[in-house]
ATP-binding protein (Streptacidiphilus jeojiensis), 711 residues
Amino acid sequence: MALGGAPQAYPQTSDRIPDHPVPHRGFDLIGWLSAPRHSGTPGMYALGPAARTPQEQRDEDGAGIPAWQLLLRAALNLVVAWEVFYYLGSLVNVEIRGFVVPKVGDGGGLTFTTWLVDLLEIALLVKVFGRMGRWSLVWRRYGRPLVRRAVVATEKKAVIPAQADGRPQAVDPWWAFRAVAEPGGLALLEQETASGRVNDVDHQRLNRALECVRDYPDRLAALLDAVRDHGSAACAHPSGLRDLPARGSGNDLLLRQIRLGTAEDVPKNPPAYRGVDLALDPTLLGTSLLAVGPSGTGKTVRLARPVAETLCLQALAGTAVVVVVGAADADLGPDSWYDVVVAPGDSRGRYGLDLYGGARRPEEGASRLADALLPEELAPRATLARQALQQVVGPFAAAHGRPPGLRELCLLLRGDADAWDGLREELRATGQLTDHQYDLAQRERMHGQIDDPGGLLADRLGLLDRPVFAGCFNAAPGGGAGDPAGKRTAPGSVPRDAGLPLFAMHALDHPLRVRIALPEHAHPEAARILARLAVGQFLHAAGTRQDRSLFAGLVVDDASAVIDTHSVRDLQRLRGAHAGAVLLLRTLSDLPEGLRAPLFGAVGGRMAFPGLAPWDGTLFAETWGTVWVDERDITRAPDTSGGMFKRTWRAIRTVLAGERAQTESVTTRRVERRRWSPSELAQVLPGGHAVLSLTAVDGTPVPPLLVDLRK
């Protein structure tokens, strides 16, 4: 049983079919599934342009040659090669006849030898003159497109099998169901597909449900019955939604990708990535991503919101759970995107936040709460703070079967006599006083001492124990701090006696969409405590989940308050837990210097936005390392060569042109240079762009790329 006795509040999963499912008309499901996709290269959007082949990369230097010049050069080399073959072949044939005829006669041996020598001559001439005439480039630029058009024209003349409605036969979106369903069991689903009422979320959700129940005959039969009776509305998300309102473009749920932008065609980007659309997916988000840039550079709109959107869509499809943390006014999507909205101090909040995260053991919840209450500058006192909270929460939970409410916890930490007497009486009544006598004695001994963290913790908790936050956090049943004027309930939740139903982070094994809206402007210090608490609980819950089939995603709009030693350590564990985080920072200066390098080492993705401070760019430059490049040095000197006539002509040209003739000496050498220097990151990046590097969960890297986020 979770700490707290009563179940924590979150929307329960259900097999209920929504009474009024949202219609989806006009979606071409078959066309979406049939669209060509290329996969295999991390970071590349599957529906975008394919990666350049090595041959195309080698031909890149010839892409700017005009057509007339390319064709004229190819034709001249062809003429010269033919003439050389004609005259050289005549001479060689004379020699062959003089060598072969006396030995084998004028017969088949002579013919075979002549053909063999001619083939060798042709191969040699094609290699020499074909390279000079760029025949391979002519073929790829003009010959191959002609052949492709001819093949397409031939295919159009062929008979294409058609469906009953006359449309060409294409991908079967329900082939997995067809293998296990009874005849006629997919009639409604096929009818909805033909009329465009089945979208990509429905397709992915139903196929995900089939994967989960395939090995369980009873559950498989129930799924097939639901599909037969309700079609695409079967197994709907508990919210009843089958899509997101105000959904943007760039989501490909088939490969679970979200398109971010286009890699620019600049020398800084490797040739294989130039002009390619870049995207994020759980494979890349699983190593976490850190984005740094000043306010107004597009971190929230062009990164945080798209990632939150795609994870919300995946949650509707039953493949992910997402927690989005940010200020109440941050553009992280409308509230209708989320199942749970925790907005302390705001009337739009439908849920409160469990201060203990639904921890199974008192020590876990107390430890997370202590880390959230004390900022990084008070980290030396964190050990004593965790110990003090555990000495209070543990005995209280044993006596009451629930954690202490906010006001109760403050009184116990301050050493209120009535609160401690009541706790002892409860422990004595339940026969557990002996088991917790040592913790109580230790806590009483610390009261009033200089190094006692109890008073500090109580003062920090007092920032949350305010009327504006009434009912948003744990409260004592039947009264106490935070009691609202009335009670509110939510579908599928168990309301407490005081306040809103509490959301607990241990619910990450459900496909939930959670938004935590922080009151940064009205109550900045309380917002920082809540941000640290939510992020700390997520990192702990995601890393200790038993069921990791869902990808757990965390998006933090301003992570300056949540980065500490514990969060950096927990970030490293997300990679193996099918989870990841997207952290946004305005500047690395907001973090203690000792945390900056460990944070860069804990994440696999790094993103620099325009306007980056040079000292921030230094860490990016060091992390991205160096690359070998060809450097050219050109030395110019006055031209003094030649005889009297040439010197006289140079003198006349100097008088007429106003400048002396010079000679150039070019030296090329291979040197090691930084991929991106701090000054380039600080001064060169244009608006709407960013430099992005990624790492897949299996360790495959994506080099730093200049990305246009507006395309």
